[in-house]
Specification:
single chain, about 130 residues, alpha/beta, Rossmann fold, 5 strands, about 20% strand
Length: about 130
């Protein structure tokens, strides 16, 4: 049985090809996948879906992933929810900011499907 079986994952990302790729590999691995692409309403989407794990892009329309992550960590309901951050900019300061704000893992685009799957499985069981 997969480590993701029965887990709900919310992907907050605005690039359709990335949403499709990650949704496909995570669904195939047994998780229920929801997607959301607007930074401004991301917190509402998290509250509505109550995911076991969040895949969060840094650059979103309306609001930065960093701001969303700060809100997630400051809310009791989501303070412990594992977050995998994705970014197109892989500079060290981006990684440091993500970790400082409470991301559990950080991944730079482009990434392999295998890497995303491994990271999500690891977060789902930690």
């Amino acid at each position: 049985m997969s480590k993701l079986a029965g887990k709900t994952v919310l992907i907050i990302e605005d690039e359709p090809n990335i949403i499709e790729a990650i949704s496909f590999i995570l669904s195939r691995d047994g998780s229920t996948v929801h997607t959301h692409s607007n930074g401004q309403t991301a917190i509402e989407a998290v509250a509505e879906r109550a995911p076991d794990l969040i895949v969060l892009d840094v650059m979103l329309p309306g609001r930065s992933g960093y701001d969303i992550l700060k809100d997630l960590r400051n809310a009791e309901a989501t303070a412990q929810t594992p977050v995998l951050m994705l970014t197109a900019r892989g500079q060290m300061k981006d990684r440091e900011m993500a970790l400082e704000y409470g991301a559990n893992k950080f991944m730079t685009k482009p990434f392999s499907n295998a890497d995303v799957l491994e990271a999500v499985r690891e977060l789902a069981t930690s």
